[in-house]
Amino acid sequence: MDDERPARFEAVYRETYGQITAYVARRCGSPQDAADVVAETFAIAWRRMDDMPPGQQATLWLYGVARKVLAAHRRGEVRRQARSAELDAELADLYGDSPDSRVELGAIAQALGTLPDDDRELLALVAWEGLDRAEIATTLGLSRNAVRIRLYRARRRLSRALAEAGVRFTAESRLVPAERTS
Amino acid sequence: MKNIDGIEAMRPLARVEPGKPGGRPSGAGARTLLASITAEEPGAAAAEPHRARRYGPRRLALGLAAVAVLATGVVVGPSLLKDGRGTDPAYAVTKDANGIVYVKVRDFHDAAGLTRQLKDLGVPAVVDYVPEGQQCREPRATYVTDVPRGLYYAPTNIPGEEGGPGWQMQIDTRRFKDGQTFVWTIGESGTSTILMNDPVAPCVLVPADPPKPRPDFLDYRVATTEGHSLAGYRVEGKTVGEVVPEIEKRGLKVTYMIIEPYPGNPGGYSMDPARQDIPVGKDWVVWEAREPRRSPGEVRLVVTDKRYDRSPLGSPED
C-alpha cells in the first residue's frame, strides 16, 4: 500500500471540498441528498486515487465523478451512506438563505427546467462553476470541439426557452458579483 | 460573457453563489467524512475486504450524530506515544490550561483504565473494547443531534507517520453539557466516538453485521480502458452479435444490463430490474462493456434493444 496516499488524498480533499460541495448543493434539492452525494463522490475518489490526475485537473475529475454520482442518485442507486448530523448541518447552511424569489428568477428556473439534462449541466458548468470550454471538455470527457458545438446549441435552446417564458434582459439586469472567493 | 444572455441570467439561480465555495473542509462534518473515507483501504483492496468495510461509512450509515471513525489504517507515529521513560504507554491522556484534552491510544485492551483517565480529566466517556468481528448491541442510547461545535476533532491520521494502529484526538471539555456521554468503542478493526444522551446501556457484544453490498454500479468499471479485460477494444455502437464472439474468444463470460434511454434520448437512461431477463437479440446495440472490479472473468454489456443516434450513456464513462 502506498503510504503517501492518505496525505495526498487529504490535500486534494481540503483543496476541493468547497468546490465540490458547492457543485453538489447547486444541483441537489435537499442537504441530505447533497450529503449523500458529496460523501459518495469523495469515497469513490479515495478508491480510485490511482486514476486521479494531479493539480487543478483533480477538481475537474472530481466534478466528473460528482456528476455521475448525482445521476446515479437520481436513479436511486446511491444508498444513504455517510450520514452524520454535522455534515448534514453544514450542508444545510448552504440551503439556509432564502433564495432570491423574484418572479423573473422563477421564470428563468422554469425555462431552464425545460432543457435536456445535458444542456442544463453544460450551461451550469459555465454559469455556476465558471469553467471554460477546455475545462468542461476535461470534466465531461468530451473533445473541445464537441463542447463548443453542444454549448452553442444549449445556449440557443436556453435563449429560446427564455423568450418563450417571456424573460427579457436589459442592460440593467442585475449581475451577480463575480468571483468572490474566500 | 460579454453579452447579457441566458447564462448570465442563470447565475442568480445558483444555490451557492458562483465563485464561492460551499462547505468548509475544516468543519466537523467534513473532517468526520474525511476520517471515515480514509478508514477504508484505498482502492477498496480486494485482498482485505473485511478490513476495508467494517466501521467505515457503515457506522455512519446509522443516521447518527457526529461519529468519528477510523480503522487500522490510521496510524500515529511511535514517537508521539512514548512517555518520558522511553516506553510506549497503552494510552496517554493529557489536559492543557484551556481545558483541551489530548488523547492518544495505541493499545485498545485497557478500556476501563482509559475510561477512568478520561473521567479524571473531565471527559464524560465510556470506553469499551470490541474484539474483531463483534460490535456492541445497538441502540445503546439516543444520539446527541446538536453536537456542540468544537467539542472534539475527529480522530485523524497523521500524514507521513507510520506505526501501529493507534490514533489521537482532542476534546474541548468545556463544551460538554450535562446528561451527555461520549461513547467510544475501540478495537483492532475500528473506533467510533459518538456523543449520546444518558442513560447509556452497557456494551453487550454481539457478532458484527456483515458488510452491506455496494450498489452495483460501483462494483463495475469500464472494461475497455487500459489495463482492463477488453483494453483497446471498442464496443460502442456495435451489435451484440459482433461483440459477443470477440469477448468469448478471450475466455470471458458475457452478461447484460438492459437499459432504456430517456424519451428522445437526451442522455441518461433507466434500468428496470424486473426486465433484465429478457433474451437479448444479436441485433441489439452495445453502448459500453463493464467488468466487475473484484472478480474478473465477466463482461457486462450495456445494451438497448434498438439503435440510437448517440449513446444513451452520454459522454464516455471513465
Could you describe the largest sheet of chain A, including whether it forms a barrel? none
Question: What structural class results from the helix and strand content of chain B?
Answer: alpha+beta
In percent terms, what proportion of residues of chain A is strand?
under 5%
Strand-residue fraction of chain B?
Answer: 25-35%
Mean pLDDT of chain B: 73
Q: Which structural category do the helix and sheet elements of chain A fall into?
A: mainly alpha
Domain count of chain A: the total is 2
Largest two-chain interface: A-B, 97 and 75 residues
Structurally, the number of domains of chain B stands at: 2
User: What radius of gyration of chain A results from the CA coordinates?
Assistant: 18 Å
Succession of helices and strands of chain B: HHHHEHEEHEEEEEEEHEHEEEEE
Oligomer: heterodimer
Q: Tell the overall outline of chain B.
A: elongated
Stretches with pLDDT under 50, minimum 5 residues of chain A: 170-182
The sequence of SSEs of chain A as H and E is HHHHHHHH
Question: What profile does the largest beta sheet of chain B have?
Answer: 4 strands, mixed
Please bin the fraction of helical residues of chain B.
10-25%
Mean pLDDT of chain A: 79
Tally the helices of chain A: what do you get?
8
Q: Give the N-to-C terminal Cα separation of chain B.
A: 30 Å
